[in-house]
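Technical appendix A lists one of the benchmark inputs used to test multi-chain prediction within the project. The record comprises two sequence entries:
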Amino acid sequence: MRINSKLLAVSAALMLGHSAPALAAVNVFACEPEYAALAKELAPDASIYSATTALQDPHQVQARPSLIAKMRQADLALCAGAELEVGWLPMLQMKSANAAVRDGADGMFYAAEHIDTLDKLDKVDRTMGDVHAQGNPHLHFSPTRVLTLASAITARLKQIDPAQAQGYDQRLADFERRWQAAIPRWEAEAAALKGTKVIAYHTSFRYLFDWLGMEQVADLEPKPGLPPSSGHLASLLERARQGDVKAIVVASYQDTRGAEWLSEKSGLPVLVLPMSVGGDDASVDLFGLYDSVIARLKKVN
Amino acid sequence: MNAFRLSVLASSLISAAAMAQTPTLTNPAISAVLDGFYQNGDRVLGGREEGFGLGESELAISANIDDMFYGKVTTVIEVHDGDTELELEEAFIQTLALPAGFSVRAGRFLSDIGYLNNQHLHTDAFADRPAAYRAFLGGHYFDDGVRLSWVAPTDLYWTFGVEALKGEKLRAADEHGEREFDTVGVYNAFTKIGGDIGDNSSWQLGLALMDNRNGRLTPYEEGEEGHDHGDDAHGHSHSAAYTGEKTYVADVVYKWAPDGNYKYQHLTLSGEFFRVEDFKAAMLHEEDHGEEEHDHEHDTAKDHHQGWYVSGVYQFNPNWSAGLRYGELETEEAHGDHFHAQDLKETELSLNYHHSHFSTVRLQYTRQQGTNFDGLNDDNLITLQYVMTLGAHGAHQF
């Protein structure tokens, strides 16, 4: 089916008088910018589109026309999974009528299915807020998990585009070498952060804190998905006054008002961290994102 | 009987909903919608009634059937005038793997004409659908039939679809039950295009044409009582009160959020225009042109109905949103061999509190001003409503 559609595309291009490349570039649809960035490392020649930016909360995305149009053309969709995109991705799959990216197809890649997520829940009830039974989906701040994902994505790329399998293997080896070299550098830089206690918005940086040995002692959200309420903020102020908390951490797509109120009352600094690639000027790729996040955290310590 | 079935549905829901998250083999997505309200008057054209009441309580089950088909069943339980009605709103299959952007949906489903029609009622920002929907589509139009859709492989979203439907709900009134209706009565063609403007805004335009083989009125017989074609004749069925052979729908929607981040603030502007043409029975039509002496004081020569609305909804923060909607409707009501021109204007203001993404409490004010509508006594309506969803709630449309 895929080969046929490619042949069709090539012959259509020829009929229109264009000189088509022998093999069309793989079309990648990334649900979040971190997966677009990873795809860029592993398949730099691919045509890559990110459905969201680092300033957009991936829980709350509109299944908008442009995304349906992009999904329609995708050979491979890269998403976090664990229900992060449950409010919009199924609608895109349904409306785009693209068999290549339906669930279970080679072209539909859910990161959470390839790694161990943190905070899996045996029992999920909506009184607990908007929680995910399959664990925390914000998993791109775990460098070892990113390595696992890189090799799983490469396997998919090779399935979808076997003609360039060798090239994908080379790109993966190159990425793994650079990433494995960066991990000890990051860990050395962040060594002083071990044991640092913060208050944060949502569990967005769960994997980062887990990796660097930091501790999120409280959440600005009273329940996952619910905005900070005044009553809850008052209880956080009590917690902050115990004196062991170093900062209030907010992701680039989160509202800072609750954090600013708490900061004003408690004297703790507010730290807005880029949630993904593109979240600040330094976060041009995954390496830049990790560099930037660690540099920002170190400033308050 | 119905009560028994309801309790079976309810108990299967309760046991499954606690676990239901991502649909799996043993665990399809099961969701329910609870909708209750108090209103201080009756809304015309099949809207909510005075007093305490329930809106559509909905129970839906959906899952992939296999790697080729997806299926969904939505039952709706409504209470009107003390009667509990169990209705099947959706029971369809849809293909998942046709080539080249094609898909087929078959069974009972929401027609894809207009902007609101294929959306579920509980996602609306107002208590009732606009008057044009209540007049021409019976609130929301779901029917038995088949749809073929195609999505273009372009960066500009472009989809095109055709539907063939039973059209029983959109049949013109037939007093004597003698008329031979076409069994496939409604053919729809629709197209939608859409895209983004920068990171902040998105838009969609839609056009639809409905060809209703049974939309023209049944010829009037001399000496008969006029066939009252409005609310009274149809009670609270989901049938359209006004039909015609051709319906044209144009819709536009624009959404905006700062940085395209819908979590905190966002704005939705939308508008739709309906024109329903060719409803006069062939015989009446002739008379209008041929016999000049046929001169009733209420009669008009117009052979179309028309309606439109514009709406703006703003979410100030995750807890609060407000909406403003204005709509007009111009219809012709059959009275025997002549017609009465009707006119309705609705101005609506809604204020919504969302404790979470799954619960909404709404206070709505409606000013309805009309001429020649039965049951239009109160010009000012206040509606207090809750709409809540439980279970594995599916993704929303744009």
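The first helix of chain A runs from residue 2 to 15. Residues 9-22 of chain A have pLDDT under 50 and may be disordered. Comparable benchmark entries are summarised in Table A2.
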